[in-house]
Amino acid sequence: MKKLFFLVIFLVSFYMQSCSYIPFVSSTPSIHPMRSVNVGYTEEGLASWYGPQFQGQLTASGEIFDMYKLTAASRTLPLNVYVRVTNLDNNRSTVVKINDRGPFVHGRIIDLSYEAAKQLGMLQAGVVPVKITVVSPNYYVLAANEKFTIQVGAFTDFKNAFDYRNYLSRYFDLVYISSFYTGRETYYRVRVGIFDSQQQAQMYAQNVVSSIVKDYFIVAKD
User: Fold this and answer.
1) pLDDT digits (tens, 9 = 90+) for 178-219
2) pTM recorded for the entire structure
3) For 58-106, what is each residue's pLDDT tens digit?
4) 95 lies in some domain
5) pLDDT for the residue 165
6) DSSP secondary structure letter of residue 119
7) Which residue ranges does the record assign to the SPOR domain (predicted)?
8) Domain span holding position 77
9) Which of 23, 54, 96, 121 could link 72 by a cystine bridge, Cβ 3.0 to 4.6 Å?
10) Is residue 97 part of a domain?
């Protein structure tokens, strides 16, 4: 009788353990970045944002994350491309650079920096529906033979030029000051980017720079 009792206990225990076993299935989306993407490519989904907790950390592109710059993380878009993100709730948009990987939550297609989220008016909501449009591939290939740049301002006061350069550095990766002496006074020219051709500079200016700066022109780099 005892043998039968212990056999019943064993079978019940085994059955309960079998029923409680649940296979582990990862809920984290995987990363499958594209090798290249065409200008005009679009995608719709949910956007979230990240900020102070990641400030100063290294991104997937090797850059240091700055929550006050217009950047974003994507699981699928190539690094260093520029995309226009439109908040479908209020139709506000901004252009960001993809420099990191994420978001690692199902249903979300892009993770925006604090500054980008602020411009889209989504800080309080946290997650909003967006449309992403690729506006420009990366043209920041710093080689010795690059010849064109985008001039966005010229000042006779160096401090004004320096302050403007610092302001624009929140939005663009490469902003610099180039001085020019006319024989009577010195002009401090604020410029954005260095490009292989005039066409590349013009495309970047139209698709990216124009969202922040209204008055600009393409010049040969001297």
Assistant:
1) 888 777 778 899 999 988 887 888 899 999 999 999 888 888
2) 0.54
3) 888 778 889 999 999 999 998 888 899 999 999 999 889 998 999 988 8
4) yes
5) 93
6) H
7) 142-221
8) 42-136
9) 96
10) yes
- Which residue's entry shows tokens 């064993």? 10
Query: Which residue type occupies 84?
Result: R
Both 47 and 126 in one domain: the answer is: yes
Q: How many domains does the chain have?
A: 2
Half-sphere exposure of 24 (CA within 13 A, CB side): 2
Count the neighbouring beta carbons within 10 Å of the beta carbon of residue 30. Answer: 7
The burial of 128, by beta-carbon neighbours within 10 Å (0-12 exposed, 13-18 middle, 19 or more buried), is given as: buried
Give the Cβ contact number of residue 127 at 10 Å: 14
Three-class DSSP category at 49: strand
Residues 46 and 127 in one domain: yes
- Overall average pLDDT of the 13-37 stretch: 52
Higher pLDDT, residue 74 or 5: 74
The candidate with the shortest Cα–Cα distance to 40, out of 137, 111, 109, is 137
Query: Are 48 and 128 within one domain?
Result: yes
User: CA-CA distance, 199 to 85, in Å (whole number)?
Assistant: 24
- Residue 129: which CATH number? 2.40.40.10
Q: Kindly calculate the radius of gyration of the chain based on its CA atoms and give it in whole angstroms.
A: 26
